[in-house]
Specification:
Pirin family protein; mainly beta; single chain; 2 helices; RmlC_Cupin_sf
């Protein structure tokens, strides 16, 4: 998915230190992915000024359920990425993916598609004609310095449904509840969908070197006893080897559980690019605008646009962002 926001709201936030037993709550902001009243809107919980990453997860958009007939669905023309991996996960609907690595695949509920941009890639995303409702998450993973210019790649996996006390889980990245995903990443990560039945209480082992985020898709969930409402992400720093998720309500609850080792590198993240310096972002934007071979071409896209044009750069110098605001 493209980050089409050209004028992000700037919020002044005070820096706070959080211990491993404290739960930080990240509230989403609404971002439109198009123009006009029918444009699809997403709820974005990271990045924020107070926290840029959960592990190496650097971007989380949560959308739907959207009635395609009312929102025109998803039609994102070819757009570029660098130095990141995109992770697509659907609860409902279907999206057609095409990229300049020659991949043409579908994103379906319960199946993870991970695309590695590395040095540069372009891709398009379009909801299929048979999609009535579109509902899911789009996540980005920042690539570390040693892998930021790696080759293009694409991985697809349909995880098994794993029984857990009081619910079900699907592991898309990493390991959880005795199940492991074959998806490979450049930093240690965890990504899973967890469904908790009414009244469920599940305490389980986690890697104590990981920080963890819980994004609530539906219902209400308690994370280590702290209530997290729908569309909010609860985040806990590394340091503990167990995590407790509870559903205090009389309805099922669904969350995305994200985790990873703290990512301490500084990055410049603007539009769909990740770099390390302002000058690098300027070069990437210019390369995309002049159709540089760095990003390749997407074959078979039949939308109204040939590609998404990069928005104008801001009038100020882009500064690196870190795991926590500095």
């Amino acid at each position: 998915m493209s980050n089409t926001e050209t004028s992000p709201q700037v919020l002044e936030c005070e820096h706070e230190d959080h211990g491993p037993t404290e739960i930080q709550q990240l509230h989403p902001r609404l971002v439109s992915l198009g123009e006009g009243p029918e444009a699809m809107t997403v709820r974005r919980t990271i990045p924020q000024l107070e926290r840029s990453f959960v592990g190496a997860w650097c971007f989380a958009d949560h959308y739907g359920p959207n009635l395609v007939a009312a929102t025109c669905g998803m039609d994102v023309a070819p757009h570029p990425h660098t130095s990141l991996q995109t992770v697509s996960w659907l609860f409902d609907g279907e999206i057609e993916h095409r990229d300049s690595g020659g991949i043409h695949d579908l994103v379906r509920p319960g199946e993870v598609n991970l695309m590695t941009s590395g040095h540069g890639i372009s891709h398009s995303e379009v909801s299929t004609p048979q999609t009535e409702f579109l509902h899911g998450v789009q996540l980005w993973v920042v690539l570390p310095e040693h892998a930021k210019d790696t080759h293009r790649d694409f991985q697809h996996h349909r995880p098994d449904v794993v029984d857990i006390p009081g619910g079900l889980a699907k592991v898309m990245v990493g390991s959880l509840a005795g199940d492991s995903s074959p998806i490979t990443t450049e930093t240690p990560l965890l990504g899973a969908e967890v469904i908790l039945r009414p009244g469920a209480d599940w305490e389980f082992e986690v890697d104590p070197t990981f920080e963890h985020g819980v994004l609530v898709d539906s219902g209400v969930v308690e994370m280590d006893g702290v209530e997290i409402d729908k569309d909010i992400m609860g985040v806990r720093d590394a340091g503990l080897g167990h995590l407790r998720l509870s559903n205090p309500s009389d309805k099922p609850a669904r969350v995305m559980l994200l985790g990873g080792t703290p990512f301490e590198e500084g990055i410049v993240m603007w539009w769909n690019f990740i770099g390390r310096r302002h000058e690098e972002i300027v070069e990437l934007r210019e390369a995309w605008q002049r159709d540089d071979d760095r990003f390749g071409g997407v074959r078979g896209y039949k939308g109204a646009l040939r590609k998404l044009e990069a928005p104008p750069l801001p009038g100020t110098r882009l500064k690196p962002r870190f795991r926590r605001r500095r």
